[in-house]
Amino acid sequence: MNSTRDPRIAVVGAGLGGLACARVLQRHGHSVTVWEREASAGARAQGGSLDMHAGTGQAALRAAGLLDRFRALARPEAQEWRLLDHATAAVLPAQGPPDDHGEEDRPEIDRGQLRGLLLDSLTAGSVRWDRAVSSVTPLGDGTGRLLFGDGTTEDFDLVIGADGAWSRVRPALSDAAPGYTGVTFVEAGFDDCDTRHPGLARMVGAGTMVAMADSKVLFAQRNSNGRIRVYTGFRGPEDRQVAAGVERGDTAAVRAHLLTMFDGWDERLLALLRDNDGGFLHRPVFALPVPHTWEHVPGVTLLGDAAHLMPPLGLGANLAMLDGTELAQALVAEPCIDDAVRAYESVMLPRSAEAAKDCAEGLTHLLPPAGA
């Protein structure tokens, strides 16, 4: 980005991909503003544990100069993958999760810790909190205009949509919208599990435990500080529980419904649903069409879930961080912003299409449709 002035770059969304992009740009001396609709970094919980793959997430952290700090926080022991028989809870032979492509170095880290690492690496004031973007308009001269929720606007030489599944930037490039995959996950959790639930902790092990049968799956995943997150997964209409007369905010009713669905499973596995702390979170799985592409529009581009939302099988966060890193590197290397974005999109779009295809197939393998 050789220019008489530092180009104005806006990243919409303070998720992992957008923050990785901002960090690499700043590391090379370029200014960037990140616009985030949440009120603060701690406005909401940041989800579970992520495995950082050597060729994607870790490559992004290396480019950001943060790999050593990541290693200090990461849990390499949490790479353990344990498959249990649903009827006996016996440990079965298993080589790895459905998305395992032979990588052996994939340490886990809590999403919140990773986001905090990236946020702390940015210049103070880079993230503008509580600034919701309503829409983006390409202006036809290679720039883009942000419209904020309060009615104000700002123009930028490049707007980067890193604002996730329900991106407000995506409509500037594509008419595509996420569709329900037919799969829903319901999340629960245990705090201080090693002390309060030692039997469950031993069953789950150091990393991820999974049991599956009859198009249903039960995951349990280690997080830091003794927390275990639990996810049930099943196929059915998005409103399945509501249609069954279950109020999603009624913890006892949701628990009873899940226990009925998983009737016949080993009691030690059912304890993951019966004894959890707190309530349940309903998480229907949405995905963008595969492949999701667009005609290049000067002044606007996408990364991460905004560009290629796919089922959550271990690739999304890694790809988002790689997207952000490669876009930043292209902007640093190319004298013309538009050439940089074109170069980035020419690599990112086919890569994400292949990954999304793999994830869709992985979801089918994990939770086969009825009759498959």
How would you explain this protein's 3D organization?
The protein has 372 residues and is of the alpha/beta class. It folds into two domains: 9-79 and 103-177 and 289-366, FAD/NAD(P)-binding domain (3-Layer(bba) Sandwich), CATH 3.50.50; 179-287, 2-Layer Sandwich (D-Amino Acid Oxidase, Chain A, domain 2). The protein is 33% helix and 23% strand. The strands form four sheets. A seven-stranded mixed beta sheet has the order 5-4-13-14-15-12-16, with helices on one face. The protein is globular.
What is the first-to-last residue Cα distance?
52 Å
The name CATH uses for the topology of the largest domain is: FAD/NAD(P)-binding domain
Categorize the overall geometry. Answer: globular
**Biggest sheet character:** 7 strands, mixed
Q: What proportion strand?
A: 15-25%
- The helix-and-strand class reads alpha/beta
Tell me the CATH superfamily of the largest domain.
Answer: FAD/NAD(P)-binding domain
Q: State the share of residues found in helices, binned by percent.
A: 25-40%
Given as residue ranges, the uncertain stretches (5+ residues, pLDDT < 50) are 99-103
What is the total tally of β strands? 17
Biggest sheet: strand arrangement: 5-4-13-14-15-12-16
The whole-number mean of residue pLDDT values reads 93
Order of helices and strands: EHEEHHEEEHEEEEEEHHEEEHHHEEHHH
Radius of gyration: 21 Å
The CATH architecture of the largest domain: 3-Layer(bba) Sandwich
**What is the highest CATH level, the class of the largest domain?**
Alpha Beta
Number of domains: 2
SS summary, helix count: 12
